[in-house]
Design a protein that fits this description.
single chain, alpha/beta, inorganic pyrophosphatase (n-terminal core), six-stranded mixed beta sheet, 22% strand, binds manganese (II) ion
């Protein structure tokens, strides 16, 4: 039987890694006994904390499809854009997609596949519901992973991406995991403040996504912090690195959002074409710095605003 790797996006976050682990577990019990989780990048510090809590190993790292067997197949979780997927994916069969992001139209198949995409708070929310639909109960380990993906993506049900389904699913999986969601959230965000002690490189690349909008490339990095105290002291260094990244990656627009999870506001540094930056709809602090009141979701708030700014300019 050929390998089926369940992969989250590049620069994986908790939903991408925990989602891959949980979806591989679900598929291995149902339609795809050969399913195994994999990841496309380093495990972030907070995700490592989650895996330790869950007692689960980090999935295998894959850098390129060519590292896998010739007949390998992939299931994509928490993304459906090839720019965010494993290098070489264009030539490999994708047999399953489970996601909660916009559609970019990359996935083309020869046969019908299961493609689940819903505008809910996390991929883990949808995976948990799949267990429910199948009449299965996730193990304590998997339930812990599912909680982590749901809680981190919805900032404990406070992000504007949160839906009724997230609110309904969380108590169920939290009970199976034996965790208190409030305490778990505290513990999760207490681990490793990138703004306080991370390198410039880590701040820019730990959770950065690339997009293509009508042939124009843009990139958006985001970090989540409890309080933005160290921001002013690091702005200059972050801005010059963002500028360099923008040039190196040939982006029309490069954004770094530093989100305060205590009030769900973000400071957003922008680099790129002057017209694009000027067209951003956030509150302007100065030429390249913006304040986003209540802005904490890349997929629902920052990316759509950036795409519109590019279209206008
Ligand atoms: Mn997600």
């Amino acid at each position: 039987m050929s390998d089926l790797y369940v992969i989250g996006h590049k620069n994986p976050d908790t939903d991408a890694i925990c989602g891959a682990i949980a979806l591989a577990d679900f598929l291995s019990q149902t339609s795809h006994p050969e399913a195994k989780p994999a990841r496309l990048g380093e495990v972030p510090e907070r995700t490592a904390w989650v895996l330790e809590q869950a007692g689960v190993q980090a999935p295998k790292l894959i850098n390129h499809v060519s590292e896998c067997a010739a007949d390998v197949q992939f299931a994509l979780v928490d993304h459906n854009e090839f720019k965010q997927s494993v290098d070489g994916i264009d030539d490999a069969p994708v047999v399953y997609v489970l996601d909660h992001h916009r559609l970019a139209g990359d996935v083309v198949t020869k046969e019908p596949i299961r493609f689940i995409n819903e505008p809910v708070g996390s991929s883990c929310t949808i995976i948990a519901r799949e267990y429910r639909y199948a009449g299965l109960t996730p193990s304590k380990e998997i339930a812990t992973c599912l909680c982590a993906g749901l809680i981190s993506d919805t900032l404990l049900l406070t992000s504007p991406t949160t839906t009724e389904l997230d609110k309904e699913i969380l108590p169920w999986i939290a009970e199976l995991a034996g965790i208190d969601p409030e305490e778990f959230t505290e513990g999760f965000f207490a681990v490793g403040s990138l703004l306080g002690s991370g390198s410039t490189e880590a701040i820019l690349n730990t959770d950065r996504k690339e997009f293509e909008e009508n042939g124009t490339k843009l990139t958006i990095a985001q970090i989540e912090e409890r309080g933005l105290g160290p921001f002013d002291g690091r702005r200059e260094e972050l801005e010059s690195a963002l500028k360099q990244l923008c040039i190196d990656g040939d982006y029309a627009l490069a954004l770094l959002a530093v989100t305060d999870i205590k009030d769900n506001n973000s400071m957003i540094i922008a680099s790129g074409k002057t017209e694009c930056i000027a067209a951003l709809p956030f509150e302007k602090v100065d030429e390249t710095l913006f304040f986003g009141k209540g802005v904490c979701s890349r997929k629902k708030q920052i990316f759509p605003a950036a795409a519109e700014a590019i279209a206008k300019s």
